[in-house]
Structures are given as C-alpha cells and as structure tokens.
Specification:
There is one protein chain. The chain is globular. Strand 5 and strand 6 (about 70-75) form a beta hairpin. By secondary structure, it is of the alpha/beta class. It starts with a strand and ends with a helix. The protein is built from 15 helices and 16 strands. The strands form four sheets. The chain has a six-stranded parallel sheet with strand order 4-3-7-8-9-10, sandwiched between helices. A six-stranded parallel sheet has the order 13-12-11-14-15-16, sandwiched between helices.
Length: about 350
C-alpha cells in the first residue's frame, strides 16, 4: 500500500498510510470451531483496534448445505449474487480470500472479473483431508489448489516448512503470515480442578479423522487421556477407547483452564499447517508432545517446551520432564499484533479507477 520493504519471502511488505477497509471472505466461520475461525476473528479484532474496518463474510449469511462427511460444517450455496451485493455495500480497499470453498471461489471469480487484486491463504491441507475422508486422489486436489491460488498477489502460509513445500509444489508468491496467542486468556492458573489420575495427557481440537487422534488414544501411557473438542468421529472413538475422557468442546476460561490442568499436551496431527492449539497450551504452561512434521517442527523444534519424536509415546513421556515456566516464556514470543501487521502488509489496494469502472 505504501512504505514497502522486502522480507524473507522476497515479496514487498507494505505499511498503509491510514485506515483501510478490509473484506475477508472465508468458508470457515462461526459457529465453526477451529484454528482458522479463531485466527480470523482475533486478527479482525486486532486490526479494528489499529483503526481499520474489517468485514468477514462467512457462510452464515447465505443459504447453506452440509459439507460431505461433516454435516456440522455448512457450505454456502450459489453465493455469487449475494456476495457481490455485500462487497459493493462495503466498498473494500482490499480483499483477502481465506479459504478455497464455494465462498472463496465466488470471491475469486468476482475479483478476476473486475480486475481487482486479492490475497489468499493456505490454512488447510485439503489434499490430505479429502484423501482421508473421501478417497479423492491428492494429485487432483493439489492441481485444483494451485489453480485457485495462481492469481493471488500473495499466498499466505504460517510456517517456513509449509512455505517451502508450497513453493516446491508450484505455488508462486508464497509469503509469511504467522499466528499469535491471547496471553491474557491463555495463562498459567491454579491447578487441581480436574480430578483424574496423573499424569494427564490432553488433546484439544476437532475430533475428525485427519487429526490422527487415534494415534494418541492408542498410546500406552500412565495416568489419564483427555480429549476436548467435538467432531464427526467422536462417537466412534468413545466406543473404541472407553478409558479416555471426552469432555466435548470448551471455550474461553474453561478451555484455558483445561490446558493448564494437563501435564502434557499431545498433538498427534500429521497434516496441520500450524497448530494454534500448540501455542495456546504452551501459554498455559503445558509442555507439548508431537511428531516432527510441518507445524510442530516449525513452532517447537528446539524450544524448551516441546518434545518431538517419530515415536509419539516417547515424545509424550519426554515432555513430562519439561519446565512449565519455560513453556510460558516461549509462548510470550507469539503476538496477534504481529500477525495482524503481517496480514495488513500483504494486502493490495483496489484502485478507485478499477472500482468505478466496474460499479
């Protein structure tokens, strides 16, 4: 927008001269509960405190249908005309397309038709997810993803290893967009409210097949295993692992308190692009055990609060001995203000001439 410099990705990074009207289009939005929604909601609020106007357009404004294999996730049905009216009413200075679903496709189509620049983000590894859930070949989905992101001025990705992978797969203009944590909410608290045998090993997140939760529940570990969250495979996992404690979805202070009650946070996913829950757990003083894959290896490899191992049981047991105060100190390096600044710096202003020509 103005005041450009170049960062690690080689793309220009801008600081706008004044308030910006930002439209974010996302197929993942409330009442969904996931890292994408938390990221967008928190960054929206952070940008608002900086004086910018942010409008998030999600499926809640449209007629929707349930997503295949996940009925609690709703997809917008034929959103193009209504989306166009929303865009025109808001009159954005910049557009960011957060997801590759029906709303993202409609926003992309509108921007291309009008000659408007836009940015996109790579939040979710849909090739692996669709392979696990529906058997769709990964090669086909990766091709569709490349096509979706090709016109983007910048494809934002949270970690260095993910950006390297995307570049290797033919994605252009890949740039950094890190994540933060609410250090006021997620903080060490007095422990002792979770009346379970110690040590307590905790998982928080969607209870879905791609999260690989079975790998955690099948581990031979002392104490108790706790799962916080909901999703399409919860009922089947409860039947298969009756000794585990499924607490359902928790939010706010209840969620933060549960993080703090755990002795180890276990992150079994092999497909997440960041793992916001990792930083939330660390901020509560809880060490993390995970596989050495994209996300965990970017966030906690070499950090004082993390144990990475291809043997997840070994990582979980190793994490038991880590310093909880060091976990908190490490998490304090993650800032939502920095995340908001990075998104803001990637936006590309829509020229008023282009807007007038298509109004």
């Amino acid at each position: 927008m103005s005041g450009a410099h170049v960062d690690e990705s080689g793309l220009p990074f801008f600081t706008p001269p004044g308030p910006v009207r930002i439209l974010i289009v996302s197929d993942a939005w409330m009442p969904q509960v996931n890292g994408v929604v938390r990221t967008l909601a928190t960054v929206r609020d952070e940008l608002a405190t900086m004086g910018h106007s942010v409008e998030i357009v999600g499926p809640d404004r449209f007629l929707t249908v349930p997503a295949p294999s996940e009925p609690d996730v709703r997809l917008a049905l034929f959103p193009g005309r209504r989306l166009r009216r929303i865009v025109d009413a808001f009159a954005p200075d910049a557009i960011h397309i957060a997801t590759e679903g029906p709303l993202g496709l409609a926003a992309r189509r509108l921007c291309l038709r009008r000659g408007w620049p836009f940015t996109t983000a790579f939040h979710t590894r849909f090739p692996e997810y669709l392979k696990a859930r529906l058997g769709v070949p990964e090669r086909l989905t990766w091709a569709l993803m490349r096509r979706f992101h090709r016109p983007s001025a910048a494809v934002l990705a949270a970690t260095a290893s993910l950006r390297e992978e995307l570049a290797a797969k033919g994605f252009a203009n890949v740039a950094a967009w890190t994540r933060g944590v609410d250090l006021g909410l997620f903080r060490p608290r007095e422990r002792g409210t979770l009346n379970l045998p110690r040590p307590v090993f905790l998982y928080v997140g969607r209870v879905a097949v791609e999260k690989n939760i079975e790998a955690f529940l099948a581990l031979d570990l002392p104490g108790s295993k706790v799962v916080v969250g909901d999703g399409p495979v919860r009922a089947s996992l409860e039947k298969r692992f009756p000794d585990a404690h499924f607490l359902g979805a928790r939010f706010g202070d209840d969620l933060a308190g549960t993080y703090g009650e755990a002795d180890v946070f276990v992150f079994p996913s092999l497909t997440d692009t960041f793992g916001l829950v990792i930083v939330e757990a660390l901020a509560c003083g809880t060490p993390v055990a995970a596989y050495p894959v994209t996300g965990p290896k970017d966030v906690i490899d070499g950090a004082p609060g993390g144990a990475l191992d291809a043997d997840l049981r070994a990582a979980a047991l190793a994490a038991l001995g880590l310093d909880r105060e060091a976990c908190r100190r490490f998490a304090e390096g993650f800032s939502w203000r920095r995340s908001a600044d990075e998104l803001l710096g990637r936006l590309v202003r829509i020229s008023r001439a282009a807007s007038c020509a298509t109004s």
